[in-house]
Specification:
Blueprint lengths: L40 H5 L23 E9 L9 E10 L4 E9 L8 H4 L3 H4 L5 H14 L2 E4 L2 H4 L15 E3 L18 H7 L10 H14 L3 H8 L3 E6 L6 H6 L3 E2 L7 E6 H5 L5 E4 L4 H8 L1
Parallel strand pairs: 1-4, 4-5
Antiparallel strand pairs: 1-2, 2-3, 6-8, 6-9, 7-8
Helix pairs in contact: 6-7
Length: 303
């Protein structure tokens, strides 16, 4: 799992008023037509602010169904992208939402020739090549995928890219990003994109290690166990999301930052964030939908 840099590792409708009694019509007075006025240069050239259309008059969208079983997963890799490395560890926990219970868990290493990220994940390449039943563990992982209704990862954009490559299967379940998609309660005083460590500590989960796949899955499972409003959080997280760019002048950039938008990441030289339509319409400033960047573009900006 690759997280955003943090301290621990490298950020009406208007009511219709009833009409009153009609007043007598005033006497018609002829007056000369007003002289036409020239528009000011500013009003002639300044475009109208762009924002989403109002939701007035539209029926409310039905929220997605809450999944009963989640597969919480994490990966450890030798690089930041599939162009630079490979996945060498998978950890996964099958979690039952109504009972807040762990049903099963698995973790396994896959052989690699070298690990340029050993200093981060602490996995020597030689250890990945030791004899161990990783194929059987992979078969168990496949069965757990078949038993779940949704997948959870902390930074889906990073973890999802490794599946469907090499021995790892294609995953055809909806994804939920616990860093980007879940709007954690404000009383937890978390950043808009918290690290796993900060999230765990905010829910009273002890943090004893970092950067191994199953360890991070355990942290998330224990956070979920403590969430009294987990169903509502998951339901909102499963709403379709698009990438939005904030349309704010430079002097008001703090408003985008406070709303969780990030500068120069998904959109070059702009404040952007992935939001559901419902979340975008609730913003106090205008935004525009923009195309998602390709993996190559993201890699070029992270290099």
């Amino acid at each position: 799992m690759q997280e955003q840099p943090g301290l621990w590792q490298q950020d009406d409708l208007l009511a219709m008023a009833a009409p009153g009694p009609a007043a007598p019509a005033p006497a018609r007075v002829s007056a000369p037509d007003p002289a036409p006025t020239e528009p000011s240069p500013a009003s002639a050239t300044r475009p109208a602010p762009l924002s989403l259309p109002s939701c007035a008059g539209r029926p409310a969208r039905a929220l997605p169904r809450v999944p009963e079983t989640l597969l919480i997963l994490d990966t450890e890799t030798t690089g930041l992208s599939t162009l630079q490395g490979q996945c060498i560890e998978v950890g996964a926990i099958l979690f039952h939402v109504p009972h807040r219970a762990v049903l099963s868990q698995v973790s396994f290493l896959m052989p690699c020739a070298g690990n340029a990220a050993e200093g981060i994940n602490g996995i020597p390449a030689a250890v990945t090549r030791l004899e161990q039943p990783w194929q059987e563990a992979l078969a168990c992982f496949r069965a757990m995928v078949g038993a779940c209704e949704a997948l959870v990862a902390h930074n889906v954009a990073f973890d999802r890219q490794w599946f469907g490559l090499g021995p790892l299967p294609v995953l055809d379940r909806p994804w939920i990003c616990s860093m980007e998609d879940i709007r954690w309660p404000t009383e937890r005083q978390l950043r808009n994109t918290p690290s796993v460590r900060d999230l765990a500590l905010a829910y009273g989960v002890p943090v004893w290690a970092a950067h191994r796949a199953l360890t991070d899955c355990i942290y998330l499972a224990q956070v979920f166990e403590r969430c009294t409003d987990l169903e509502a959080l998951l339901q909102a997280a499963l709403e379709p999301r698009s990438l939005y760019r904030a349309d704010l002048p430079y002097a008001e950039r703090h408003r985008a930052r406070e709303a969780g938008f990030r500068w120069n990441e998904a959109v070059p030289r702009a404040w952007s964030r992935r939001l559901s339509r419902r979340e975008a319409e609730a913003l106090a400033f205008p935004v525009q939908v923009v195309p998602d960047p390709s993996a190559a573009e993201v890699l070029a900006r992270s290099a």
